[in-house]
Amino acid sequence: MPSFVIRPLQNLPQIRNALGELLVETVANGGSVSFMHPLPLEDARAFWNDSLGAAALGERVVLGAFDSDDLIATVTLLLKLPPNQPHRAEIAKMMTRVAYRKRGVATALLQAAERLAVDRGRTLLVLDTAVDDGAAPLYERLGFQLSGIIPDYALKPHGGLTGTMIYWKRIGAVAA
Ligand SMILES: CC(C)(COP(=O)(O)OP(=O)(O)OC[C@H]1O[C@@H](n2cnc3c(N)ncnc32)[C@H](O)[C@@H]1OP(=O)(O)O)[C@@H](O)C(=O)NCCC(=O)NCCS
Q1: Which CATH superfamily hosts domain 5-175?
Q2: Which candidate among 82, 104, 107, 168 keeps its CA 20 to 30 Å from the CA of 138?
Q3: pLDDT for 12-55, tens place per residue?
Q4: Crossing angle for the helix pair 13-28 and 41-56, to the nearest 10 degrees
């Protein structure tokens, strides 16, 4: 198993490039993360530029997992929510490089994101994942509860509709 370190990512060219390559690879391999295949690298970099810009404003945290200097996985904690939901945060854009999957990297990133959310006083985490080729077992293993499924919610990267599964988890003091 590789040793890896997790840290928040900043809006730097090499980070945007590594995140862009990770997003393109994830989409090409059928990961449902809002984009269609083939995803141009420039579009992927532009997405991360916007996301990391929002992170610089404190509206989200983009975490990265590194094996030495190589970015091997990422997850985003969305913190900017409407005024009546200050206690909530959302998990998004969870993806691991294909070569590093099934080694516990996503699990560690999700646990780190949850700790960050608790540190910020959030008590409820919400996320969704695709019915086809999503990550439901991973989230359920980490204690997320399934609210329900919306059928035909989105296109898969290579075409064809898939449903989405809505999950939630109480965190921090209220989880006890
Ligand atoms: C979903 C995804 C992020 C998981 O990343 P990962 O780093 O492989 O995740 P983990 O290694 O922590 O866990 C994955 C599985 O490997 C297993 N695993 C973890 N460490 C392991 C090890 N050392 N040996 C064998 N299996 C292991 C886990 O038990 C887990 O099983 P489960 O899915 O049945 O719960 C990755 O497959 C991915 O990027 N998919 C495409 C994008 C996507 O669908 N993202 C989710 C959007 S909501």
Answers
A1: Gcn5-related N-acetyltransferase (GNAT) (3.40.630.30)
A2: 82
A3: 999 999 999 999 999 999 999 999 999 999 999 999 999 999 99
A4: 130
Cβ neighbours of residue 41 under 8 Å, at least 6 residues apart? 20, 21, 24
The domain limits of the chain are 5-175
Tokens of 14: 């090499």
**Does the C-beta of 15 come closer than 6 Å to ligand 1?**
no
**What DSSP character marks residue 131?**
S
54 contact partners, CB below 8 Å, separation of at least 6: 60, 80
Query: Residue 99, class by beta-carbon neighbours within 10 Å (0-12 exposed, 13-18 middle, 19+ buried)?
Result: exposed
Ligand 1 pocket check for 106: Cβ under 6 Å: yes
Nearest CA to ligand 1 atom 14: 102
How do residues 40-93 score in pLDDT, each as one tens digit?
Answer: 999 999 999 999 999 999 999 999 999 999 999 999 999 999 999 999 999 999
**CA 26 / ligand 1 centre spacing (Å):** 13
